[in-house]
Amino acid sequence: MRRFVRQAAEILRGDPAADRVVPPTGITARLTLFTAAAMAFLAVFALALSLAAGRLADRWSEELARGATLRVSAPAGEMEQQLAAALRVLETTPGVTEVQPLTDDEQRALLEPWFGPDLPLESLPVPRLITFQETGGGYDPDGLRLRLQAEVPGAVLDDHRRWRRPLLAAASGLRVMGWSALALIFGALGAMVSLAANASLAANAQVISVLRLVGATDDYIAAAFVRRFTLRAVAGAALGTAVGLAAVALMPDTGDTGGVLTGLGFRGLHWLWPLLVPLLAGAVAFLATRIATTSVLGDLP
Amino acid sequence: MDLVITFDNVAYSYGGGELLTGVSLDIAPGSFHFLTGPSGAGKTTFLRLCYAALQPTAGEVRLFDRPAQELGRDGIAAIRQRIGVVHQDCRFLDHLSVADNVALPLTVAGRDGPAARRDLDDLLGWVGLSKRADARPPELSGGERQRAALARAVIVSPDAILADEPTGNVDWEMSQRLLQLLVEFNRMGRAVIVATHDLGLVRVAKKQVPARVLRIANRQVTAAGADL
Questions:
Q1: Closest Cα to residue A285, out of A212, A200, A211, A225?
Q2: Fewer Cβ atoms within 10 A, N terminus or C terminus of chain A?
């Protein structure tokens, strides 16, 4: 562990003399750079997806969790009496607040997409709607249903839970998919950097042999390779992150009306999250190269 | 003062065949040894055992009074800073200049400051490579490569130098020059072991230093006859 920390510190500090002992290897350098850039680009989108799904879940949860609707159906002559009874029940139910019967205009606006703007509500047996919110402590929906059943038989309570549950499950699923994609992206980056490091170590067997001959420790040799691949991964990831951020920023913003895909993007401080991508890519490359070099150097005589 | 290298009943086998057996000897500080014998007799194997590139299959090799088997990787790396090695094929890092290659032991030891740079210039002058300091190793002649390898081996002032056929690829004049460098290094109180099949070189050297000649034959290391 101490060696690990020391090597990480050496990478941050840098050692130009040590860096020069490993020859620049063109193809693995370019591959590492390209892979890190591509993975960082994808990571930015996966991150945007995760955060957007999280926002959506929070919004749905917030909007649907506290609200509920009571639908009152009754013959035309009894509607006002039933409505008043329902209001009385709600106002006397602990945990219920902001009880608000929808006005005719509000109901008309609600039905307008289906029936047009001139719906004669007075002559149609349209149920009346009452919206209300629950307080922090919440209310007992089963108890409320029983009371309504006894006092307002034509009332149906819709507490939105049956809508909210699948929506939240879908949003959570999307969020998990986003984080899983991120984990896979960094796993793939680690695997690719590991392959590139192995190829580089194999190509530099002669260099390793000379370094050992002149007294270089395995840590010294490993650090030279680890530093090179880590810095390449960070540079590539920084490039990919910048391009990814630009792409996300250029996506059309549909604001609050957007769904998870059209609302893909970052809001506020979430724009800082992608800045972690190059650091994470560097950490992954550091670990992958360190494991590869330790393994290869351990196998060499 | 500790012995530099001690072989205690050492054997080494490879691929089912025994290359060395029952080898016991001491290499003292300031001594000069030649190791002779036909090709394939085990000279290189003997040298590799001397700097822990190989471990004996029986017996014990001690380097500066520490068993080589117990050194570990870092311990072996430390030993390589005390025992300089000159290979017959003079392996270099071809992407670095001659000066950087010669300074490589200092670089890996983290001792490549301005003072070391001055020592490097002196050393390159000592081996006659000052004008070739910026050249790349592939541009060097055989003799220049051998001198560069020797300079690299001595730059950290090791306690011993092991040279494997250092004159194998050079003409007689260059052989004399390389030998002279090794003799000068030995006169600084450092141990030198030179593996060679060039008996003429051995005879010339014996006129300059009290060298001990070892012969490897039939898996044994013995003192050579009086003719050497």
A1: A225
A2: N
Same structural domain, A14 and A143: no
Q: Are A171 and A270 in the same domain?
A: yes
Digit-coded pLDDT (tens) for A162-197: 777 787 788 888 888 989 999 999 999 999 999 999
Same domain as A21, residue A125: no
- C-alpha dihedral (B128, B133, B138, B142), degrees to nearest 10: 10
**Nearest residue in chain A measured CA to CA from B93:** A207
Say whether pLDDT at A260 is over 60. no
Query: Can you tell me the ipTM of this complex?
Result: 0.89
Residue B195, classed as helix, strand or coil, is strand
Q: At what angle do helices A276-299 and A218-250 cross, to 10 degrees?
A: 150
DSSP bridge partners of B184 = none
Q: Give the domain-ending residue among A153, A188, A211.
A: A153
pLDDT at residue B178 in the model: 87
Mean pLDDT of the residues in chain A: 85
Domain boundary at A153, A181, A208, which? A153
Among chain A residues, CA nearest to B78: A215
| Residue A106 structural domain | 74-153
Q: What is the DSSP letter of A14?
A: -
Q: Interface of chain B against chain A, CB under 8 Å?
A: 53, 73-74, 77-81, 85, 87, 91-96, 100, 104-105, 107-109, 112, 152, 156
Per-residue confidence (pLDDT) for residue B136, from 0 to 100:
96
Domain total of chain A: 2
Residue ranges of chain B with per-residue pLDDT less than 70? 1, 225-228
Residues A53 and A181 placed together within one structural domain of the fold: yes
Nearest to A213 among B73, B80, B94 (CB): B80
Q: CA A139, CA A173: separation in Å to the nearest integer? A: 28
* Residues A40-84 pLDDT 10s: 999 999 999 888 888 877 777 766 667 788 999 888 788 888 889
Residue pairs spanning A and B at CB distance below 8 A: 57
User: From the CB of residue A107, how many other CB atoms can be counted at a distance below 10 Å?
Assistant: 17
At residue A132, what are phi and psi to the nearest 5 degrees? Answer: -155, 165
State yes or no: pLDDT of A7 exceeds 70: no
Q: Tell me if A18 is assigned to some domain.
A: yes
A101 and A25 within one domain: no
State residue A90 phi and psi, 5-degree precision: -65, -45
The verdict on A232 and A138 lying in the same domain is no
Q: What is the reported pLDDT for A86?
A: 92
In angstroms, rounded to a whole number, what is the distance separating the alpha carbons of residues A284 and A234?
A: 10
In a domain, A27, yes or no: yes
Please report residues of B whose CB lies closer than 8 A to that of A210.
91-93, 104
User: Tens digit of pLDDT for each residue in A89-115?
Assistant: 999 999 888 899 988 888 888 888 888
Residue A160 lies inside a defined structural domain of this protein: no
Residues A139 and A87 reside in one and the same domain: yes
